[in-house]
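Journal club prep — side note

Before the paper discussion, L.F. wants everyone to see what a predicted structure for a comparable chain looks like in token form. Sequence:
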Amino acid sequence: MKTFYRLLRYEYGQLFPGLLLIVAAMAAFTLGALYFRLNNLYSSSVHPRYEDLYVQINGPFFFLAAYIFLLLLFAHTIRQMKQNGKSLYTFLTLPVNRVAIYWSKYCAFAISMLVLLVAQFAIYAVGYSIMLGKISNHSGGRYIMDNGFFLSLIRSDFIRLLFPFGWLQLLNFISMFLFSITVIYYIMLMLQSTKRWSLLLAVVAGLLMYRIVNHIADSNTFYYDQKSVINDSFYLLLLTVLLVIISLRIVKKGAHS
């Protein structure tokens, strides 16, 4: 366990500088775009709902860009480990199980993904406070809606995608979260092995994730076709488990080195 903790701390340390830069860039672009958009609103303007305003300033796009860059960062650390013969594992005094190396990277990336999600929620909340201050200046606080922030969370398709409010949304979130962590590691292992045909499994799982995102984004489908949503989420979880099993077999055999 102590060796695993050392590996986990090392792996997260490898990701943290890049993660910090990604979060800072996401916050700067999102809040900067919100600031300039609010400057174009006046007391006589029709003030949009916050969740609509957040879409207008491309807030979801900035998160998607940060998400993609985080995936690329994780892929880079996997490739760097293969290329760097003097990695930490060379200097460990105790024998290191290949499985422990896999799970240390997996958990480090899971923590990084959670940090990105927490940062996104914080940015969303700060943005609402900024908008609230702007509206207060226009109306003297007369037109501020009670529980406006909570209502914006409920009404926002983007927020429902990242922060579930019910058991079905939680199932969707867990399946997509675990898949996001698993698939990038799986793809890198496949690219370094002779079993590249197995990348087809990642493609199938990716299509399932795309279907789930569409279900959540489309409120009508989300509320009236729950059976399809549940089936897709369970299938995605099963495929994710399969990707983990295949990845562990490759890591144990050293077929990727």
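L.F.'s comment for the group: The chain has a mean pLDDT of 79. Keep this in mind when we get to the figures.
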